[in-house]
Write a structure and sequence with these properties.
Blueprint (H helix, E strand, L loop, with lengths): L2 H26 L6 H4 L7 H22 L2 H32 L18 H8 L1 H13 L8 H22 L19 H23 L5
Helix pairs in contact: 1-3, 1-5, 1-6, 3-4, 4-6, 4-8, 7-8
């Protein structure tokens, strides 16, 4: 694809992703949470944090295109995009199998699909569309694999994993009766830490896979 075509594709994909993600975020955060989750609010959910990262990436890409700033574009393409894409991929890979086969592991007080708090359109807007559109942006627009090294990516995903674990420890008032946002995290140590280690390692594996499968183009 020629440069002009890549620019148009980048603008179109990020504009579409921005619209669907913003709409999904507004609708998802309008859902009333049970008392055990209300204290920490929607900000405790990795899905919501991932969508915010996606929106930041979309805005950064569109802003860089409008401004024509090489440094801003590099940050958008080589920092924001890989982080958002990896996190959204982890969210989708964890969410959808559990959504289909083990719903009680990801939603409190929801035993089957008949009591889903999210409409299908909203569900797809926050759990599917972001990863599909970001992956399309990476595959279609980027001529080469991400520049970030595997070592640096390991540091980034480890920092994000530890940061999210610590963040939950701060915002979730366990002493006050609050629960973690996802039932599969409501386990004792060292099992909870083990889950974070597995997910963090999987995130690094996702980054490795994206670098590996990307087809270099001229």
């Amino acid at each position: 694809m020629r440069t002009n075509g890549r620019t148009v594709a980048c603008a179109a994909l990020n504009a579409l992703c921005l619209c669907t993600s913003t709409w999904g975020l507004r609708r998802a955060t309008a859902v009333r949470l049970p008392a055990s989750l209300a204290g920490a609010g929607h900000r405790q959910f990795l899905t919501i944090l991932a969508v915010v990262a996606t929106i930041i990436t979309n805005v950064a890409n569109l802003g860089a295109l409008v401004a024509g700033d090489a440094r801003a574009r590099r940050w958008a393409r080589q920092v924001a995009l890989p982080v958002a894409l990896v996190v959204e991929t982890v969210v989708a890979v964890v969410y959808w199998p559990l959504r289909v086969f083990a719903l009680p592991l990801i939603m409190h007080d929801v035993k089957d699909g008949s009591r889903m708090p999210l409409a299908v359109s909203v569900d797809c807007a926050v759990h599917l569309a972001p990863v599909v559109l970001l992956a399309a942006d990476y595959a279609v627009v980027e001529r080469r694999p991400f520049e970030m090294s595997l070592g640096r990516a390991w540091l980034v995903v480890t920092a994000l994993g530890l940061g999210y674990k610590r963040y939950l420890a701060v915002v979730v008032d366990r002493a006050g009766g609050a629960v973690y946002p996802y039932p599969f995290l409501d386990v004792a140590e060292p099992y909870q830490s083990g889950i974070f280690v597995v997910v963090t390692t999987a995130a690094w594996g996702v980054f490795w896979a994206y670098k590996r499968v990307h087809v270099r183009s001229t």
